Amino acid sequence: MTEPVTAAEAGWHFDNSYACLPELMFTRLKPTPVRSPKLIVLNHALASSLGLNIQALQGQDGVDVFAGNRIPEGASPLAQAYAGHQFGHFTMLGDGRALLLGEQITPGGRRVDIQLKGSGITPYSRRGDGRAALGPMLREYIISEAMHGLGIPTTRSLAVVTTGETIIRETGLPGAVLTRVASSHLRVGTFQYAANWGSVEDLQALADYTLQRHFPEADTQDHRYLVLLQEVIKRQAKLITQWQLVGFIHGVMNTDNMALSGETIDYGPCAFMDAYDPATVFSSIDVQGRYAYGNQPSIAAWNLVRFAESLLPLLHPDEDQAVKMAEEALADFVKQFQAHWLSGMRAKLGIFNEEPQDEALADDLLQMMQKHHADFTNTFRALTLEKPEETVFFGTTGFAEWHERWLARLGRQQEPKASSLQLMRSSNPAVIPRNHRVEEALEAAVNQEDYSVMERLVDIVSNPYAYSPEQEEYAGLPPESACRYRTYCGT
């Protein structure tokens, strides 16, 4: 019998700073062991960047860690407590099927959370079974790697293991555990929980911890809690802009799914938009369209108001003054988002400098795309490749006029056309994880235990700006269907 691989041999280097917060913020407990874990996918590039030994992770000891059957040396598992507004309704939440193993210190000194998702019942499970199904865990793996490839801040997936157990949703499904890596799992909902169920001292301890972890340069400044609010606003304005510029729809923008680090978190009912329409919704539970594509900026602003509310006791002893400070900070979100969005649209159109009519140029294109049900990604792809004939509105008077305006606009800048095209290539993905491709991969994996379809898809979408011949078939639109595409949260 071989000796177990030590944490040092596997490359684990855990620290547990979150566990130093007030005890109401978490519950210590171990994962619930699973029957027969099997490694399905391991993110080699991510593992290497974390300083982990890939060979050791693929062995039985490594698989047991990913399944929750073995706690690596130095880890201190806990379930985090938090609250949140879910579709506008405030409720107590917490890690209902996840455990934070601890924080890995990378070779470069970076601190990241290592979390198991689907690891069993916790005190916050709310009558759930604490488990996860294979399909949703693989979906998170695919989409998070695609987002990373797009250059959008995101949590990432290190590994997925099957458990050898069946979990019951509408039917029996293969169980799985996903290992998620995040800059942290601090959320707007974490602060809402502390503000509602903790003392001011608890809230201050959480705020100080967040500053030290994510905004250390602001920790010593005057009004550091106002700086905390401003920095979170800044990161969210940039993040939501990046979502909008690639047609990503999160699907469940509850306050517990807004990470203060500025990373995209929780890939439940998410999807990428095909035909451009601000009203696009994929989530089966978003019947009112609260989290539609076009609503994402305003929902982000709404969530940030909730964050500001939780910080009021720390902003100023006088409540009226605290509210005024928060309102002034929040007013910047719209300005920042609009500035980022216009800058991003200029890049998508190959524009380097600024002119007053640039916003109208971008808006007119989007309106034309909506009118003609044009594919969002492929319209910009066609312009990038200088193939306007591949757009659905080619030949219309409206497009001819717009195209002439655009070419004239490019001609009024110093940069040559080749530079504009290069800027467009780096701003317009050639491929996204098309919904039908994702479903194709999940179908093969879950029902046939064929993971090759998923592996090829991940390989393609991990380098979306390559414009390689291999990406051509993945740029194709889904077949016509009488049914609207729907996604499910997987809980």
Automatic annotation (TrEMBL):
Coiled-coil ranges from the UniProt annotation: none
Keyword Signal belongs to the record: no
Homology family: Belongs to the SELO family.
Enzyme class: transferase
Residues reported to bind ATP: 94, 96-97, 117, 129-130, 180, 187, 266
Active site (catalytic residues): 256
Signal peptide stretch: none
Needed co-factor(s): Mg(2+); Mn(2+)
Keyword Calcium attributed: no
EC number of this enzyme: 2.7.7.-, 2.7.7.108
Keywords: ATP-binding, Magnesium, Manganese, Metal-binding, Nucleotide-binding, Nucleotidyltransferase, Transferase
Residues given in the record as Mg(2+) binding sites: 257, 266
Functional note: Nucleotidyltransferase involved in the post-translational modification of proteins. It can catalyze the addition of adenosine monophosphate (AMP) or uridine monophosphate (UMP) to a protein, resulting in modifications known as AMPylation and UMPylation.
InterPro entries, sorted: SelO
Name of this protein: Protein nucleotidyltransferase YdiU
Catalytic activity reported: L-tyrosyl-[protein] + ATP = O-(5'-adenylyl)-L-tyrosyl-[protein] + diphosphate; L-seryl-[protein] + UTP = O-(5'-uridylyl)-L-seryl-[protein] + diphosphate; L-threonyl-[protein] + ATP = 3-O-(5'-adenylyl)-L-threonyl-[protein] + diphosphate; L-histidyl-[protein] + UTP = N(tele)-(5'-uridylyl)-L-histidyl-[protein] + diphosphate
Source organism per UniProt: Paenibacillus vulneris
